[in-house]
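Budget justification aside, the reviewers requested a transparent look at the raw inputs and outputs of the sequence design task funded under Objective 1. We therefore reproduce one unedited record. The lines immediately below are the structure tokens for a 610-residue chain.
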């Protein structure tokens, strides 16, 4: 796709592109399926079964089913977009065609934050699991990595960087081996528990019954327990679309197939885990799900298998411990590569300096983006040396970016209805808005404390768009760009400091002051740019600014907010979020427009190759 910051020299750009090396087209349906499968089966399968019980009890089974169904709505829209735009790092680019750079930057920046934080999440998980033998790597009193453990995690990040740097064919070979092991071990775990130790009384015959935390917990607990985190890796197949032999066929088919397979595995794992609990061996009162979590939380399946006393299961627990390294390793490898491809994609559309779009002449990999993403991943180890501290931010940023699916697919249907779509979403009138609402609800269920962080991070990142090639396209002075960027950074930093040090203790009055400042920063910034440029990108991004403001308000006063007595308890908060999401969705459709890049595709009928 042409760089939007250099439209006046498109012929020169095309000449330069033709002389540059292109990404290898070597991946098959099997590879897209496996890379999506790998993204979804990582450290989550080892933690989330017990984590879900801590928040939902046996009803966690329903949470996995509901989450899988909700993900279907999002995945079918992304499958259509992935087939339509078979780009590496595609999720960073879709909304660019219908709403322009500012709207798309918010969404792609959120996903970049999610990708960057996932790599150290898995690195920390590997080192934590290994601490059973490497005592020096983990501080059990503080539940954080030691300096030596952080060093080991950094070495792991560098190792997978080398694999991705050498080339996608090398990763293809590595991923097939790791994924095969990751798939087999969970399946064997299910079979062994079902056939050798299974107590059906754990489902209904305990204090609190099947819904010890209430029916709403299967929704409200889906984020914090890791259920949604477990599914979110589906988009890895989209990230490698530009390297697929037949992306129009293999990308949608590979991703959807992976979802169904993974959903079956997670649901059966949850059932097996509940049935395999030996309460007396755990020294926890039957039905005390929180007590069980505290007792077995560091290695859930390992402790459960050992507690059964069945020799074969005890022996298999050792294999579980080994897989506790392999499962995160596969997801880890996938995200090291996908993060680089996200940066690569942002550079290709002019959001970051062009150097990040460089492809290595020998290995044909996005080498500059790989180096940059590796450095940032290592830096994230310093302030977040635990699995849960990074996971909550990572999954929330991811689901924020997933809002691009439904609204972009619908806008494309409205703007370019005759564009060839290799995969068409069935019942799109339902699936498009439902996909947006689902993603929005997942953001809401992250809770106020995380929603607040996500909006703060989005604001901090916004000036990078203006300081990059896009700022030159706006045809304003560099001094104006510098001034507006400094305003955003200084104002956002001041608002954050004021909130955490002064306003947070003032209750809802403090929130009103703080969120008014956060809202004004977004409104003033885009209004000033609009007055200077009259750019259609400003109007097209208004839907997301409205969403940012409203999601903060509802999340603060809702059931997962900061108030001891929520103004919007369950289920009224969910109803309000659905209504608000639909209103924002249709505002987004109203302001969508046929961007210059979309007009080129419509005119030629050809999606540019990389």
């Amino acid at each position: 796709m042409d760089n939007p910051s250099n439209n006046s020299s498109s012929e020169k750009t095309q000449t330069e592109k033709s002389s540059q090396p292109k990404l290898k087209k070597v991946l098959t349906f099997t590879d897209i399926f496996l890379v999506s499968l790998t993204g979804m089966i990582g450290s989550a399968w080892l933690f989330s079964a017990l984590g879900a019980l801590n928040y939902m009890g046996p009803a966690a089974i329903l949470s996995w089913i509901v989450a899988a169904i909700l993900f279907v709505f999002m995945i079918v829209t992304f499958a259509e977009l992935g087939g339509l735009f078979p780009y590496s790092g595609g999720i960073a680019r879709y909304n660019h065609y219908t709403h322009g750079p500012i709207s798309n930057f918010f969404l792609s920046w959120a996903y970049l934050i999610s990708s960057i934080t996932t790599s150290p999440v898995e690195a920390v998980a590997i080192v934590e699991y290994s601490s059973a033998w490497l005592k020096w790597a983990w501080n059990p009193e503080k539940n954080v990595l030691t300096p030596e453990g952080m060093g080991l995690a950094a070495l792991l990040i560098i190792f997978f960087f080398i694999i991705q740097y050498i080339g996608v064919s090398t990763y293809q070979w590595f991923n097939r081996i790791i994924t095969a092991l990751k798939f087999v071990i969970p399946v064997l775990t299910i079979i062994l528990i079902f056939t050798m130790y299974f107590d059906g009384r754990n489902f209904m015959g305990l204090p609190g019954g099947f819904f010890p935390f209430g029916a709403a917990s299967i929704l409200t607990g889906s984020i914090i327990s890791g259920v949604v985190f477990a599914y979110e890796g589906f988009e890895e197949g989209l990230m490698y679309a530009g390297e697929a032999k037949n992306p129009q066929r293999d990308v949608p088919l590979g991703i959807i197939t992976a979802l169904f397979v993974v959903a079956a595995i997670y649901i059966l794992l949850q059932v097996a885990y509940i049935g395999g609990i030996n309460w007396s061996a755990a020294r926890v009162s039957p039905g005390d799900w929180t007590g069980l979590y505290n007792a077995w939380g560091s290695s859930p399946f390992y402790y459960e298998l050992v507690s059964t006393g069945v020799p074969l299961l005890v022996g298999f627990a050792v294999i579980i411990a080994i897989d506790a390294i392999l499962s995160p390793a596969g997801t880890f490898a996938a995200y090291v590569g996908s993060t680089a491809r996200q940066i690569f994609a942002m550079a290709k559309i002019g959001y970051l300096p062009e150097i990040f779009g460089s492809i290595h002449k020998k290995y044909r990999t996005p080498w500059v983006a790989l180096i940059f993403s590796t450095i940032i991943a290592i830096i994230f180890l310093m302030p977040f040396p635990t699995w849960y501290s990074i996971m909550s931010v990572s999954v929330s940023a991811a689901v924020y970016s997933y809002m691009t699916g439904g609204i972009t697919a619908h806008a494309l249907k409205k703007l370019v209805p005759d564009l060839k779509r290799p995969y068409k979403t069935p019942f799109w009138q339902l699936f498009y808005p439902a996909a947006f609402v689902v993603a929005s609800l997942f953001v809401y269920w992250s809770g106020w404390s995380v929603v607040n962080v996500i909006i703060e991070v989005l604001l901090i990142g916004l000036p990078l768009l203006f300081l990059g090639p896009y700022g030159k396209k706006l045809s304003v002075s560099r001094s104006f760009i510098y001034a507006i960027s400094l305003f955003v950074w200084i104002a956002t930093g001041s608002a954050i400091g004021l909130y955490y040090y002064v306003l947070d203790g003032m209750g809802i009055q403090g929130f009103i002051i703080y969120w008014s400042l956060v809202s004004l920063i977004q409104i003033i910034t885009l209004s000033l740019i609009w007055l200077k440029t009259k750019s259609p990108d400003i109007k097209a991004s208004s839907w997301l600014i409205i969403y940012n403001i409203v999601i903060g308000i509802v999340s603060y006063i809702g059931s997962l907010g900061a108030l001891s007595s929520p103004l919007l308890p369950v289920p009224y908060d969910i109803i309000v979020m659905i209504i608000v999401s639909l209103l924002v969705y249709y505002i987004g459709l109203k302001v969508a427009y046929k961007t210059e890049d979309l007009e080129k595709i419509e005119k030629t009928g050809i999606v540019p190759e990389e």
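The domain at 21-446 is CATH 1.20.1740.10 (Amino acid/polyamine transporter I). Confidence is low (pLDDT under 50) at residues 1-20. Computational costs for records of this kind are itemized in the attached budget.
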